[in-house]
Amino acid sequence: MNRVLSKTVSTWPGWYSRPRWLVLALALLAGGVLFGSLGAGAFSISWSETLAAFRDGFASADRQHAVIWQLRLPRILLGFVAGGALGICGAALQGLFRNPLADPALVGVSGGGALGAVAAIVLGVPGFLQGLPLVSLYAVPAAAFVGALVATAVVYRVATWQGRVRVATLLLAGIAINAVAGSAIGWFSFVADDVQLRELSFWSLGSVGGASWEALGASVPLLLLALAVLPRYARSLNALALGESNARQMGAPVEEMKRGVVVAVAMAIGGVVAFTGIIGFIGLIAPHLFRLAGGPDHRWVLPGSFLIGGCLLCGADVIARVAVAPAEIPVGIIVSSVGAPFFLFLLLREKRRGGVE
Amino acid sequence: MKGIVAGLLVAALGAFGTLSAADAPQRIVSIGGSVTETIYALGAQETLVGVDTSSIYPEAATKLPQCGYQRMLSAEGVASLKPDLVILAGTAGPATALEQLEKLGVPMVRLSHGYSVETAKEHVLKIGSVLGRDEAARKLVEGIDAQVGAIQPGADTPRVLFVLSRGGGSAVVSGKGTAADAMIRLAGGKNVAADFEGYKPVSAEAMVSLDPQVVVTTSRTFSDLGEGGLEKALPGFSLTSAGKANQVVVMDDLLLLGFGPRVGEALQELSAAIHPSASPKAAQR
């Protein structure tokens, strides 16, 4: 199998090592973005103060240090991990659907996750689970995970026809899932009380402003699990690019991969959506940006998309918290106002290539 | 130890009756239109360093740094104004931002939430005490009492409907548990929409069956809807008693719904307007 797969890679002779260097460069860039965004925010904190905050440690009583430790650090980390998860999930979905227009929000996975989270907020935790440790912390992410899982499975079922995923059906399935989620969320917001309504409106906009160490603690394990699983399917995704029957003949574990990718994506998106609301388009943009320079080999596209996605959301969040300080723009609005035109551009390009059926 | 010292300090303050204005907070962020209004009414506006977008009265308040909408605060944004006190209306949020502010150790005073003259007075007194302006607060409360006391009980209980619209689209009416519902009752009217809770849109037929004698709305709704817009946004309005007699009362948003220091004035105005027979010169249209 490996011999055949490496042939697909060797269609870029001389570029073979380029994606590796690109991922390395992106990792450095990500470090820079993470560190740089520590210095940006409504509260003006000098770099020497920022470093002092790290020297004094978590429990420092200083107000500026508390801003760094309690607000910015969890927020930056959540933003990066969430953006990264959206990026890698976008790359995995695009590989699974063999379609460059797949995006967690576009194909309804995020919508399903949001529906799960909203249901958990409005309906609350079922009585027999109440009082158990960790339930209050994990109830919303778990519900978001289930919602995302169901949505991914349904979209995949609907969009696959004789082993092939059709673009039009895929996007329509996404529209349908989003419509179902939207109407269900509408029902929930109709019965929700004032406090719940305010929490719900948070979902529709998307923000990492609510980040805390607790939120990180609840979402990161889900994300890490997914991130550990997805790269294992990189070679199979490469084989799948040649078509499902070809992939089978090459010995790729197609069915196992499908299930694995769907569950991992749902887990990661569930973990993200539960704490950030719906943030669209990162999963669409990040893999495209990577492929522009790094080629289509999933072994590099997956980590590359993670890094690019993290940088994008982290960077957008800097704009979100600085642009109208001391007020704040929900980051979802910033991302989608860049992402939506990008989606249109992709659609036009695909049309010119004759890729949209 | 710190807690004990603080406790003693509070006890000492209690013993001396009041906080002197010099020890009072000097950098205040006010979240909530009525909170800001109260701070101005108490003459403490020079201590304000930031407000939220609902602080629209007096107009000078809109020139201060804005922390965004009161329900969508950003913890770092509020903290960046380096307040030594944040006064929050009961509706302020989101909860995560308030938790974050607490973790940062930003001193906060959160007012209760409620729509009554009693809560309005309580809020004035509370703000007065944290600002070291108890005397001014007491005077303000006496003023409210006098205004409320001067309201003539109407001979009848008119059927009133409150209408709100943002951006000139469809309108919603106020059911139970809203500020408008409380104002209508306190002004001696009957809220015809009290069968449901919160703000809900209403169909043409439901509108006719509610049959209000007076429709109350805010000046912002009125200007958003434009000339003749009320008929369009409220299908069925022209078939109601209020529509036929053109009984529409328009009042300033924050004055009518704020339950702030002007609550007495607002009740006087509303009461006079919905009882047209008692005072023919009321603010009618």
Précis, in short:
The complex is a heterodimer of chains A (357) and B (285). With 357 residues, chain A is mainly alpha-helical.
Walkthrough of the structure:
The complex is a heterodimer of chains A (357) and B (285). Chain A is mainly α. Chain A has a single domain (2-8, 17-353), classed as ABC transporter involved in vitamin B12 uptake, BtuC, CATH 1.10.3470.10. Chain A has helices at 2-9, 18-38, 47-56, 63-96, 109-123, 135-159, 167-191, 194-205, 213-229, 234-240, 244-249, 254-276, 282-294, 298-322, 331-353; strands spanning 160-161, 164-165. Chain A has a two-stranded antiparallel ribbon with strand order 1-2. Chain A is globular, with a radius of gyration of 21 Å. The relative contact order of chain A is 0.18. Residues 1-15 of chain A have low confidence and may be disordered. Chain B has 285 residues and is an alpha/beta fold. In chain B, the strands form 2 sheets. In chain B, strands 5, 6, 7, 8, 9 and 10 form a 6-stranded mixed β-sheet that branches. In chain B, helix 5 (117-130) runs antiparallel to helix 6 and helix 6 runs parallel beside helix 13 (263-274). Chain B is globular, with a radius of gyration of 21 Å. The A-B interface holds A 41-44, 61, 63, 66-67, 70-72, 194, 198-199, 202, 209-210, 212, 321, 324-328, 330 and B 50, 53, 65-69, 71-72, 74-81, 93-94, 96-97, 99-100, 103-106, 198.
